[in-house]
User: What shape does this take?
Amino acid sequence: MAIYVTVWNEYVNEREYVHIGKIYPKGIHMAIAEGILQHEPFAVRTALIDEPEHGLTNEILDRTDVLIWWSHMVNDKVQDEIVERVYERVMNGMGLIVLHSGAYSKIFRKLMGTSCSAKGREADDEERLWVVDPSHPIAEGIGPYIHLKEEEMYGEYFDIPTPDELIFVSWYTGGEVMRSGCTFRRGLGKIFYFAPGHEEHPTYHHPDILKVIANAVKWAATPHGNKPVYGNVESREKSGKGA
Amino acid sequence: MAIKVTVWNEYVNEREYPHIGEIYPQGIHTAIAEGIVKHEPFEARTALLDDPEQGLSQKILQDTDVLIWWSHMKNDQVQDEAVNRVIQRIREGMGFIALHSGSGSKIFKQLMGTTCRHTWREADDAQRLWVVDPSHPIVEGIGSCIELEREEMYGEYFDIPAPDELVFISWYTGGEVLRSGCTYRRGRGKIFYFSPGHEEHPTYYNNDILKVIANGVKWAYSPRNS
Assistant: This one.
């Protein structure tokens, strides 16, 4: 059965700036949606902030195994009610892939419990994303590193909790490094943060980047256990205390 | 009571090559031992491969809270009995700090359970060690990064188990990165791997590097009767 993927985008810069619109004429969401389909037969749809309920209605989330998230300019305009809804879905097992400036989104910061701030510089640094966990399914089909000719620098210190798994570490021309491919588990949900993807660069047309995102969708959609039980409970044994 | 530190070194290159001997006239072990006591009042001693029982006698190990390890050329000449004694002490709670090419030592490889191989290049790359865990005691007193003008490149992929804690990530001029400050726990012992320290560079005179090693000793120390 196909994995249901929703690619969410604020879709602001691509419409406002001509030079960005040229790189992503149909928006970053369409580049990602079409790009990952070249790697895996997902059932993909897109959702935008302008749509009713930010495109994240219960009906749509019911049909979403993995949500891919790109946001930047309007991070703070995402309604708290929708953030809460996505959060609950993740806790109940929906996969979440947060890209680039999505690090500053309300949903990612809520899930992390930290500020998720990093250093930044828009100066056409080269970026090399080194694989530091070649055993991980997210690195399937990727060589020792991914090379991006031009990318915005996102550098340490990156204020995240220690990742459950660290898969990519980035090198930039200007001298910085970044934990750029990180996994986290929250509740029943699996989360992957992937740093590259500044809107002024054709990063989401790069086959390796799309391959990593497609791999991450498959990983984030893997099965999970049952919903945990919390609170006061009866003894399991009749002879036990409180029986 | 002062923490008892033993700085172990194979002490080969410093005696064989004049240009290395000029940098470390009394050996890397002495530079480290003298350097860390400037930061903390440790009771520091040194031990060498040429010493009786390779400087790793039961008596010395029992009298050591934290063992600092530098080895390279003679990694394979450390006797298995000595290796086993060290590992036994680590499991009992002795701290262990493996430096640079000490990643290829029998002790470190046995503790990790992996090959500990990586890429390398001796080409005077600049190295920047970025702090990625500013909450960690090992980075007390260290800014956002440590800069080394010239260092041997040790790069990913570095075949280690995922570290229990990742404290430093290194950047090199040539385009590589490395998980260069990593902690592990094995048995009751705490282990810190710290990658800089090629013998042809004065790395172990760098104040920040010495501070990190001194911090590493304090972190790796376990009280005896616990």
Chain A touches chain B at residues 128, 130-134, 144-145, 155-158, 162, 165-166, 169-172, 175-177, 179 (CB under 8 Å).
